């Protein structure tokens, strides 16, 4: 196992996107793998807000070396129900989260940072795609990043080393089955 004093290869950028289930779940699996290998991991959730997910408690139980922060204001709805006021509130939360994320990226304290649902934040106009690309390009070279969420921008995909598109074949929700604890949250 390499230590910080030995040569550390450049970090990778992974993108999990697409219409299918499992983008965050895959990122969390990789985060758990990194943590198990002695790496320091930060999971930054841009959209999920104050929802109570099982992974929050699991990560808290793991202790030092892995951290999850819910920074968003819940899911964004861009439809007839969305108002300028609600979108402004989401944009404000995303901007606050972005500032904290930039500080953490530049702190060089982490080996892996997961930017959970950041692709949604860009798609819905809460964050600038150019700012995200700049963060990727100017991060500490050893830092690994995982960006999740539907609608990954072509500019982000272009910067990535690995892009995985989750494809929806079938989902229980289509049969009217509601989200289940332990499966979706």
Report on this model:
The protein is α/β, with parallel strands linked by helices. It has a single domain, classed as P-loop containing nucleotide triphosphate hydrolases (Rossmann fold). It is 37% helix and 16% strand. The chain contains 6 helices and 6 strands; from the N terminus they run βαβαβαβααβαβ. The chain has a 6-stranded parallel beta sheet, with helices on both faces. Strand 2, helix 2 (54-62) and strand 3 (66-70) form a beta-alpha-beta unit. The longest helix is centred in the middle third of the chain and has 24 residues, at 84-107. It is globular. The model has no long low-confidence stretch (mean pLDDT 89).
pLDDT under 50 segments (min length 5)? none
The strands making up the biggest β-sheet line up spatially as 3-2-4-5-1-6
Q: What is the CATH class designation? A: Alpha Beta
Which H/E pattern describes the elements? EHEHEHEHHEHE
Taking all Cα atoms into account, the compactness measure Rg is 16 Å
Kindly identify the CATH topology. Answer: Rossmann fold
The chain-level structural class is alpha/beta
The tally of beta strands, per DSSP, is: 6
How does CATH name the architecture?
3-Layer(aba) Sandwich
Overall helicity: 25-40%
Outline, from the CA principal axes? globular
The end-to-end span amounts to 33 Å
- β-strand percent reads 15-25%
Number of helices, where a helix is a run of at least 4 consecutive DSSP H or I residues: 6
Q: How is the main sheet built?
A: 6 strands, parallel
What is the CATH homology-level superfamily? P-loop containing nucleotide triphosphate hydrolases
Task: Please tell me the overall pLDDT.
Answer: 89
Please give the oligomerization state of what you see: single chain
Number of domain units = 1
